[in-house]
TrEMBL record, chains A, B:
It comes from Verrucomicrobia subdivision 6 bacterium BACL9 MAG-120924-bin69. Keywords: Hydrolase, Metal-binding, Protease. It holds the Pfam family M20_dimer. GO terms for biological process: proteolysis. The keyword Hydrolase applies. This is Peptidase M20. Residues 165-324 form the Peptidase M20 dimerisation domain. GO terms for molecular function: metal ion binding; peptidase activity. The keyword Chaperone does not apply. Gene3D superfamilies: 3.30.70.360, Zn peptidases (3.40.630.10).
C-alpha cells in the first residue's frame, strides 16, 4: 500500500503478464482504483464436460526493511541451505509461481486436463478491496468449477495439507467518554467514574471464566465439529507444547475441552487487539482521563455471520455499559468463515493430488485460524468452493524478516498443480 | 523541571531573597541538587513562650505556552476584571505573596506576635524531592510550633476554608507479558492468552460492584469519619450536580452511601491513570500483543499507609494473575494522608483568623482529595501540624491556561496572615 511502490507494482503486473504470454496463455492487466489485477486464461474448450479451474494468488507483499532484522536485502533473493530468502518468497510469489510452473509445463506438452484461469491480484495484503468488483464485472468470463489457492501453511515439512476451513472475522472499535476533559485524579477521583475502569469491566466481561466468549447468543450458530475433524486435528501432531513454544508463552489457555490446535481452528474467539487510555509516558501521572478505547476482533467459525456477531457484541456492550460514560462503537471490516468438507466435491481430488506430489504421504486436514476473505467472495460471486492447498511451512516467516520458501517446493508445487488439475478433470 | 528554565529559577530565588531582605528578614538561599530553597527568618526571641510559625510556599510553576489556550503571555501578568492572570498567580505566587505582605506590614509596625520562618521551595510541582533533605539538615534551625500553607482551594468565593485533611497516594505500574513477541491473532488466538484480556480482568477486579475497592485489607486502617465531618461536608454546599458540572461527566458514580464531595475527601480510591497494549493506530490490526500495562494510583485516607497499600495491591494482583502471563509490578511514589482535627491544637486559631479576614463569615471545613506530600514530611521531620488555609478558588485554573488569582485576595490573605499569627501567639 506504500504509494512510493506503485510503479514497482505496475512493473510486477507487467512482468507477470509477459510471463503468462511466454506460457502461451492469454494475459490481461485489469486496472482497478488500486493495484492492477492480472488475469491469464488457457482455454481448450470443446467438450461441455471440460472443467475450468481458477487459480488465485497475489503479487503484493508486506513491507520489509533491513532494520526489521533481515540478514540481507529483502528484495534481492538469496538461496541459503535450499531456501529462497526474500520478501514474498512464501507469501505469495513462490506459491503462485509453483502453479504457473505446473501449468506452463503442461501447456508445452499439449495442455492440462482442465481449462485454467489465473487471477493474481496486488492488494491481498491490504484487504483485497478492489477484487470483488473485478469478480463481479468479469463474472461470466471467470466462470469456473472450483478455485485453487496456495496461500496457507502445511502442517509441517513433508506434511501435505488440505486446509478445509478458515475462520471469519468481525472487527469493532469501542470508545468510552466519561468526563468532558481530563481531570485531576485526586480532586475528582472517587466521585467521577473513570472510563478506563468501565472499559476494563466491559472487556473483562467478554469471556466466561471457562474461556468461552460471554456475549449472549455468540455460539448460537456455531456448527458442531464432526468426530473425524477432531481425529484429523489430533493427526496433525501439533501438540500444545509446540504452539506454546512458537508463541513463547508462559502457558496456554482458552476454552476448556479443546486442544490448542482445535481452539485455533474450530472455535471462535474474542480478542482485544489494542487498548488505550490516559497517560502512557514514563512514570506516574495523576490523571482521570476523559476517554478510553479498545480495538476488538472476533474470529468466527461456520456458520457465524460477521454482521450478526457485531450486532450481538454491540448490544451486549450497550446493555452492560453504565450511564456514567458514553459508549461509541465503530464497525470495521468483516469476513465470513469458510468450510468445505474435504470428503465431498473436489476435496478427495485435492487430497489425492497432494499425496501424489509428496510421494504418497498421508494428507493432513487443517482448519486455519486466520481469515482469507476472498474465499467467501469467490463463493458468493462465482458460486464455487476453494481448495486451499498451501505450500508454506509454519516457520517460513511470512510477514517477518528473512521470509523463506523451500526451493524444492517449487517443483513439488508444480507436480501438485498438475496432479490436481488432472484429478479435477476426472471428478 | 525544564532545564532551560534553571537560570530563571535561580533569578526567582534571588528576587525572593532580596524581597525578604527589604522586609528586614534574614534570607538565605539554600542550594540543593535541584532548585534552591529560600529561607527567611524574623526572630524576636526573648520569652520562651513565644511561638514560631513556619510558612511554606513554592516559587516554581507548571509549564505554560500560548498553544495551551492562554489569551496572553502566561509569564506577563495581566489584571483583568480584578483578577491577576498569569502562570503561578494562584499556584503559588499569589498565595505565598499574601503571607509575605502580611508579615512585611507587621514588621514595619514592630513585628508580628510570633517568630516567623518562611520556607519557599522551587520543586513542589516536580515532587519536592530535595526538600526533605533540607528539613532534616536544618531541623533545629527550622524548629517551630506549627506550619502554615496556603496552597489549597477555598470552598468557593467568600467562603473562608480550613482544609483539615488531605488524601495520601500510592502509585504502581503493572506490566503483563504473555507471548514473547506479538502474534497473529488469527493464527494463535483462542489458544494463546492475550495479556490485554488478563489485564482487563485484573483491573476490573479492583472494584466491587458497590464501587468499593476490592483489594483485600484495603479498608482495614481507614478511620471512621466523625458525624461533625459529614455535617461540615454538607455545609460546603457543593452538591453532586456541581461536581458533575465541573467534570462534564454524563453521571457521577463511586462508593455507595456517600455524596460526591464525601467520596472525594473522606474515602480512598483505586484509579487507573493509564492503560496501554497492542495496536493503537487508525483502523484494525489483527495482533495478539506480547505486552499490556497500566498505571495505577490509590488515594488514601487516614490511617492508610502508602507502602502497606502497595503491598496489599501487589499481593492481590499476584494472587489473581493467571499463569498464562508474567506479572511485573513497579512501585512509584507514595505520600501519606493527612488529618488535623480543626477543633484541636491551632485549628480554632486558624478558623478565627479566616473568619476575621472574611468579615466574620462562617468558616468551612474541607477534606481535600489531592495530596501534598510535604505536609506529612513536615509532621515527620519537624513534628508539627500544618494549617491549610488556602486562598485559591475552584475556578482559578491552577495548572491550566489563564490561571488567575483575585487581586483583592492579596489584601485578604495579608489580613488573614496577621490575624492567624496573632491567634497562634495567643493559644
Amino acid at each position: 500500500a506504500d504509494p512510493a511502490r506503485a510503479q514497482i507494482m505496475r512493473e510486477c503486473a507487467t512482468w507477470l503478464a509477459s510471463k503468462f504470454r511466454e506460457m502461451r496463455m492469454e494475459p490481461e492487466i485489469v486496472a482497478t482504483p488500486g493495484a492492477p489485477v492480472v488475469l491469464a486464461k488457457w482455454k481448450k474448450g470443446g467438450s461441455a464436460k471440460r472443467r475450468t479451474v481458477l487459480i488465485y494468488g497475489h503479487y503484493d507483499v508486506q513491507p520489509a526493511e533491513m532494520g526489521d532484522g533481515w540478514t540481507g536485502d529483502p528484495f534481492e533473493p538469496r538461496l541459503i541451505d535450499g531456501m529462497v530468502v526474500a520478501r514474498g518468497s512464501t507469501d505469495n510469489k513462490g506459491q503462485i509461481f509453483a502453479h504457473m510452473m505446473g501449468v506452463a509445463e503442461k501447456i508445452k506438452a499439449g495442455g492440462p486436463e482442465t481449462d485454467v484461469i489465473f487471477l493474481v491480484e496486488g492488494e491481498e495484503e491490504v484487504g483485497s478491496d478492489n477484487l470483488e468488483g473485478v469478480l463481479r464485472s468479469r463474472k461470466e468470463e471467470l466462470a469456473c468449477d472450483v478455485a485453487v489457492i496456495s496461500d496457507t501453511n502445511m502442517a509441517g515439512p513433508d506434511k501435505p495439507t488440505l486446509t478445509y476451513g478458515l475462520r471469519g472475522i468481525s472487527a469493532l472499535e469501542v470508545e468510552l467518554t466519561g468526563p468532558s476533559h481530563d481531570l485531576h485524579s485526586g480532586v475528582y477521583g472517587g466521585a467521577v467514574v473513570n472510563p478506563i475502569t468501565v472499559l476494563t469491566r466491559l472487556l473483562a466481561g467478554l469471556h466466561h471464566p471457562t474461556g468461552q466468549v460471554a456475549v449472549p447468543g455468540f455460539y448460537k450458530k456455531v456448527r458442531k465439529v464432526a468426530a473425524w475433524e477432531r481425529k484429523a486435528a489430533k493427526a496433525l501432531r501439533v501438540p500444545d507444547a509446540e504452539v506454546k513454544r512458537q508463541a513463547g508463552s508462559p502457558a496456554l489457555g482458552g476454552e476448556r475441552g479443546f486442544s490448542a490446535i482445535e481452539r485455533i481452528g474450530m472455535r471462535p474467539t474474542a480478542e482485544i487487539n489494542g487498548i488505550t487510555g490516559g497517560y502512557q509516558g514514563p512514570g506516574p501521572k495523576t490523571v482521570l482521563p476523559s476517554k478510553a478505547s479498545a480495538k476488538l476482533t472476533f474470529r468466527l467459525v461456520p456458520h457465524q455471520d460477521p454482521k450478526e456477531i457485531a450486532d450481538l457484541v454491540e448490544r451486549d456492550l450497550k446493555k452492560r455499559c453504565p450511564k456514567t460514560v458514553k459508549l461509541k462503537v465503530t464497525r470495521h471490516h468483516g469476513g465470513f468463515p469458510y468450510f468445505c468438507d474435504p470428503t465431498k466435491g473436489f476435496g478427495p481430488a485435492a487430497s489425492k493430488a497432494l499425496s501424489q506430489a509428496w510421494g504418497g504421504k498421508r494428507v493432513d486436514y487443517l482448519l486455519e485460524g486466520g481469515t482469507i476473505p476472498i474465499v467467501s467472495v469467490i463463493k458468493n460471486v462465482l458460486g464455487v468452493e476453494t481448495l486451499l492447498v498451501g505450500l508454506s511451512l509454519p516457520d517460513c516467516r511470512a510477514h517477518g524478516p528473512d521470509e523463506t520458501f523451500p526451493i524444492e517446493y517449487l517443483e513439488r508445487g508444480a507436480k501438485m498443480n498438475q496432479a490436481l488439475l488432472k484429478e479435477i478433470a476426472g471428478v
